[in-house]
Amino acid sequence: MKTISQTISNKARAFTYDNIPHEVRERARHLMLDAFGIAFASTRFDFSRRTLDGLLALTEGSAGNVPVVGMDTNLPTRDAAVMNGLLIHGLDYDDTHPNGIIHATASVVTAVTALGYAHNKSGKDLLTAYVLGIEVATRLGAAARGEFHQVGFHPTGLIGAFGCTIAAGLLLGLTEEQMTHAQGITLSFAAGSMEFLQDGAWTKRIHPGWAAQCAITAATLAKNGFIGPRETYEGRFGLFASHLGKDFQLNGLQEEIDTIGQTWELNNVAIKPIPACHFTHASADAAAILHKDLALEQIARIVAKVPAGVMKTVCEPVENKKRPANAYEAQFSIPYSVATGLRYGRFGLDALDEAAYTDATTLAIAEKVESMADPEADFPKYYSGEVIVELKDGSMLSHREHINRGADTRPITNEEIVLKFRENAGTVLKAESIDRIQSLIQNIEKHDARDLLDGMSKGEQK
User: What is the pLDDT of residues 54-82, one digit of tens each?
Assistant: First the structure.
């Protein structure tokens, strides 16, 4: 009987560019476009500069050769992966696989572009490895059935590392045996704590890049003969038992892995229409819809209903969520998201400005928000949200978004992704640079990894 990691390795070794249907390749290119547009937007924020300064300090004067997106700087391969992953995930605006509750693109595209650059891989190689990494990471994430968040682990960092390992293994030409060892090695490297929720710390931002560098390290060690455990996922101290407890039932994962190359989880990846935690989107949208019919001074009480499985993430601790101390707390706050939607009719990048999340009027609205579990939620398939506003005259206004925008039955179209990319990249780049970079990504098979990252390392700034 093969272990799960052996089954994954076997599927990976048989995976080719020609296996991927045309429409899946097309969607993959658009997911990559979305990710890199966000990366450009992130370069304006303090967290990006401080992270780059730290990584440059680690090089001790030894320059790397892999470009950082939008920052006209090169770093060693693994450090470039960390930095580019941070830029893609740093605004919490990147895509999410709902069942896996994982930002898989942020880690996988980071790993394949950095490693691909170092090894001069073709655009077809990059796209193939990216799609494979997504197919693995999303299935592994879904196997946890939402439980990683409940015990304080962030799947994007933890599970993302395994998807990246398979993608890296494909690029490096690992044998089936080496790829199995690489997954076992990653088991000792992968990490991602949810403790950032307590105070809005920056650590979540770095999880995808860290997952990518774990994978690059593990795959390279395995290629050179390093031995890792075989029962990476189902073992007595494997991934699921060690993180979710020995009583967690790992059901159906082998069968799901068998569907790689037959069904396509990449098509179920949800694009974010709002720069905040996906768990807040439906509530923010519901509040925005109520905005036009509402006089703010008449609000007496607000109830926000969300899935029980997200309350620890976006509703607790209550005081922090009602008065966010920084942009990251604001992005993970139901009270702030609802207050912003009710006041302005939208939640955009400007909601992450200090002037916005410290605004007295918005905070006064947030103070009135009471969050509660929604027994009708279909979580984790959908991240629903309902907002009920009680007015001082006793009347009620309410709106429910049972299916969040971007979910499989309410997808963001490829055309809408292009608009989002151009808006995000347009925060720092002139139109000519945006056109050039968009063409590079959307025609990735005609280029190689060095064309891609060299073309994105800088652009004509505004």
Answer: 999 998 767 789 999 999 999 999 999 99
pLDDT in tens, 137-178: 999 999 999 999 999 999 999 999 999 999 999 999 999 999
Structure tokens at 238: 């494997």
Return the residue matching tokens 């966000």.
38
Total domains in the chain come to 2
Which pTM was predicted?
0.91
DSSP state of 413: P
List the structure tokens of 446. 């005609």
Q: Is 79 helix (H, G, I), strand (E, B) or coil?
A: helix
Half-sphere exposure of 415 (CA within 13 A, CB side): 0
Two tokens, residue 46: 């303090």
Whole-angstrom Cα Rg for the chain: 21
Rounded distance, CA 143 to CA 253, Å?
6
Q: What one-letter code names the amino acid at 367?
A: E
For residues 118, 120, 124 and 125, what is the CA-based torsion angle, rounded to 10 degrees? -50
Which residue, among 205, 122, 115, 117, has the nearest Cα to 165 in the 3D structure? 115
The residue among 220, 222, 190 whose CA lies nearest residue 208 is 190
Domain boundary among 249, 268, 287: 268
CB-facing half-sphere around the CA of 137: CA atoms within 13 A: 42
- Domain hosting 81: range is 4-268
